[in-house]
Specification:
Blueprint: H1 21-36, H2 38-43, E1 52-55, H3 62-73, E2 76-81, H4 82-85, H5 92-106, E3 110-115, H6 118-125, H7 130-144, H8 148-151, E4 153-159, E5 177-180, H9 186-197, H10 208-213, H11 220-241, H12 249-257
Parallel strand pairs: 1-4, 1-5, 2-3, 3-4
Helix pairs in contact: 1-3, 5-7, 6-7, 9-11, 11-12
Bound molecules: adenosine-5'-triphosphate.
Residues 17-20, 58-64, 115, 158, 160, 184, 192, 195, 220-221, 224 line the site of adenosine-5'-triphosphate.
Length: 266
């Protein structure tokens, strides 16, 4: 049984996403505004529909910003890994895909997020499997059946390997906008540290500029990991010494020293 997404337990919005300002603007204009002002867009005969395809190194916020997009419009969020819907039985993958679209349609407004879109294109370009080709065609049909104005459904795709994405997905009305999600720059890293440390017991030695400076090439997920390590170390110490204390700058710097950035390998 496929886990068909999640309702937004606690809402994530653009305010939770550090950096990525131009991506936020693109999503705003391409998917949020047509969603919230359908009348205006149809008056100007502005084409709507189609999805956005996000690409970039892992851990830099593709899933996170898709979830935040759902949060912005108060929609249910359905994250789907393509590999989850694959089945060796004839027609079953297509049926799984169809069920996901139907569930999202029945629970409008909704944002469908397909991760690892390249899994489809890769196999298709290699013509390795008829089963996969059927799924690609189904995906194209499902995408084109969405009328953003009336359906209140948005589709966002993501990939770490844009060069493997089937070109059929990139035509108008499909994933027709390809957007790079870069590793966070210095300013974005600073914001991400602030966001992720918010609410944690930190002392006043924290210098966010320095944390940002020391984490060049770190992804958002890497930063989250740094904070996780520092927190765990402090907790372990508290348990051992039975003396409570706050998280310090040195704890965070030590955690940074014990880790490596992941975006360089991309
Ligand atoms: P993958 O390609 O591996 O699926 P991804 O690009 O979808 O990676 P996410 O799952 O969105 O990456 O990011 C992992 C975690 O890192 C998120 O849950 C989020 O907490 C944090 N994160 C990443 N980028 C940002 C960001 N720009 N602002 C705030 N948090 C971020």
């Amino acid at each position: 049984v496929i886990n068909l997404g999640e309702r937004l337990a606690e809402r994530t919005t653009f305010a939770d996403v550090g950096g990525l300002d131009s991506l936020k603007q693109t999503i705003e204009m391409k998917i949020i505004k047509p969603f919230t002002n359908p009348g205006l867009f149809s008056k100007f005969s502005k084409k709507t529909g189609g999805g956005i395809l996000l690409y970039g190194p892992p851990g830099c916020g593709k899933t996170f910003i898709a979830k935040a997009t759902a949060g912005e419009v108060g929609a249910n969020f359905y994250p789907v890994h393509i590999t989850e819907i694959l089945s060796p039985y004839f027609g079953e993958s297509e049926q799984n895909l169809h069920n996901i679209f139907e569930t999202a349609r029945a629970n409008k407004p909704s944002v469908l997020f397909f991760d690892e879109i390249d899994t489809l294109g890769y196999s298709r370009s290699k013509s390795s499997s008829d089963l996969m080709r059927g799924l690609v065609d189904s995906m194209l049909t499902e995408l084109q059946s969405i009328n953003t104005n009336t359906d209140k459904m948005l589709v966002i795709g993501a990939t770490n390997m844009p060069w493997d994405v089937d070109s059929a997905f990139k035509r108008p009305g499909r994933f027709d906008k390809l957007v790079f999600v870069p590793p966070p720059d210095r300013e974005a890293r600073k914001v991400i540290f602030k966001l992720k440390l918010h609410g944690k017991p930190v002392d006043n030695s924290i210098v966010y500029d320095l944390l940002a400076e020391k984490t060049e090439h770190y992804s958002g997920a890497d930063i989250e990991n740094v904070i996780e390590i520092a927190t765990e170390n402090v907790l372990t110490e508290i348990m051992r010494t039975n003396q409570e204390r706050l998280i310090t700058m040195e704890d965070l710097l030590a955690a940074i020293r014990s880790t490596k950035p992941s975006t360089l390998e991309w």
